[in-house]
Amino acid sequence: MEGIYLFHGDVMVRANFWVLMAVLMQALFFSCRQGVKSPDFVKDMKLVWSDEFDGESDCPDEENWDWNEGAHGWGNSEVQNYTKERANSYVSKGSLKIVAQKDAKGKWTSARLISRWKKAFTYGYIEFRAKVPDRKGSWPALWMMSDKNEYGQWPRSGEIDVMEHAASTWQDKTYGTAHCKAGYGGNPVKSEYIIVENIEKKWHTYGVLWTEDAITWYCDGKPYSEYKNPRDEQKSENSWPFDKDFYIIINLAMGGSLGGSIPKELDSCQMEVDYVRWYQ
After folding, report:
1. How would you class 8 by CB atoms within 10 Å of its CB: exposed for 0-12, middle for 13-18, buried for 19 or more?
2. Residue 188, preceding bond cis, omega within 30 degrees?
3. Nearest by Cα to 268 from 85, 110, 71
4. pLDDT tens across 25-42, in order?
């Protein structure tokens, strides 16, 4: 094909076919990545920290992240061994990949990145853009915990789950949850779900607006749940330990109390994170 002729006003312009296709594909890629919305209020906030996962190294930025390692079940009977190996967590093409995979002996490895003692904040809006695995047996999560545990060990110092998905247990439901002494584990103080279409193949944003008055969960720019500060006069930290710095956790667990049984034919699955951003 020699070329394609386009009209610009009254002038006919000859365009190379492959150049035109490249431009169209780039525009399509950009529109797909930018099509997922953030809440409107974000434009009036200041971006105080982010990781866009677009560095030259395939290693996640160690100024931002550390790794939890080990295979002790993590309190939930999970089967994976968390490692720092590049096979389980790496950066490529502008995004972070967390890969859970089964070896020849049937043992699972994965990764759990944490920003503890490196990046932690109190209040603001945190947002992840991610593609989340929808495979039975997988248990991906984007969440936060207290950086210094001022009120004591879990659940006393609180936990905010921005996004959790467990296809074996919850099918197509994706949850946002808060844990503290007043309610935790299987009876959290707040937990609501949303149905996210095509969760594994398409980009979606998952966010939490956290103020001294409430924690509000968002998906693709829309709120779907809220936990209001009950402002208890006595032992307020029992129901609201959410007034201290929290750090960020990105992990992909396998099996366990929520992951459930893993199909024998499943050898690997992946969570992809385009960015993490914190606004205040």
Report:
1. exposed
2. no
3. 110
4. 444 444 444 457 999 999
pLDDT at 234: 82
* CA contacts within 13 A on the Cβ side of 205: 25
90 & 156 share domain: yes
Active centre residues (catalytic)? 159, 164
d(Cα 244, Cα 11) in Å, to the nearest integer? 63
Same domain flag for 16 and 111: no
Give me the CATH number covering residue 170. 2.60.120.200
Cα–Cα distance measured from residue 188 to residue 182, given in angstroms and rounded to the nearest whole number: 8
Which residues on adjacent β-strands are paired with residue 113? 67, 250
**Distance from chain centroid for Cα 223:** 16
* pLDDT-flagged residues of the chain (< 70): 1-35
Domain total in the chain: 2
**pTM, entire model:** 0.88
- Could you tell me which residues come within 8 angstroms of residue 121 by beta carbon, excluding any fewer than 6 positions away? 48, 49, 245, 246, 278, 280
Tokens 């002790």 belong to which residue?
72
Note down the domain range covering 19: 1-34
At 15 the pLDDT is 46
CA distance 95 to 89: 11
Q: Are 88 and 98 in contact (CB under 8 A)?
A: yes
Same-domain pairing of 83 and 183: yes
Query: Are residues 48 and 22 part of one domain?
Result: no
Residues with Cβ within 8 Å of 186's Cβ and at least 6 positions away in sequence, in order, are none
